[in-house]
Amino acid sequence: MAQRISVTVKPNARKSLIAKLSETEYRLSVHAPAPDGEANRVLIELLAQHFDVAKSKIRIVYGHFSRRKLVEIG
Fold first, then answer.
1. What is the 3-state secondary structure (H, E, C) of 14-73?
2. What confidence category does residue 36 fall into, taking pLDDT thresholds of 50, 70 and 90?
């Protein structure tokens, strides 16, 4: 069963970090810049490592060009 979480992304951060705010809300700082979708690629990699799933199991449902995203895992 797929799980949906709300993610707030901070691109161009000094370090890539994941902060869990609640069961369905996370804040991610990513080292990558936002243009060309690089921050989204790093976001998917970080979430895959955090949830111990394959990158192909993570999908951005909406918010591709926004800091606030809805992400589906599973």
1. CCCEEEEEECCEEEEECCCCCHHHHHHHHHHHHHHHHHCCCHHHEEEEECCCCCEEEEEE
2. confident
